[in-house]
Amino acid sequence: MKLESPKVTVPKSVEDTFAFLSDVKNFETLMPENISKFEVLDNDKFLFALKGMPEIILKKKETVPPNKIVLGAAGGKLDFSLIADIHAIDENSSDVKLHFEGEFNAMMAMMIKGPISKFIETLATNMKTAV
User: Fold this and answer.
1) What is the pLDDT of residues 23-38, one digit of tens each?
2) Which end of the chain has fewer beta carbons closer than 10 Å to its terminal beta carbon, N or C?
3) Measured over all CA atoms, what is the biggest interatomic distance in the chain, rounded to whole angstroms?
């Protein structure tokens, strides 16, 4: 299953945006309002939970400065990646698009598609003001 967020424009340089997203503790400011738990576990790993959903641990798997950050599920029953693609517009602004990729059976995909789409859209939207 592949999902994409809308592209958002961030009023920061591509380097500043990359630096912000590279620091996993900053993801707390991007989370939706219905977050019930957020905990930094390591320099490159954090745990979060949304109300009514299981806890998810994301770990930074790959970085390609200053354009790409890949977070992946660390443990748990679901295997997926959350990829941030960052592109410069000019020296003071950049575009960010989030991609969610995971392998799920048809039933699971049907159940999580809506909540995951809303989740990555919220992360992207919150970047406009948080970064």
Assistant:
1) 999 999 999 999 999 9
2) N
3) 44
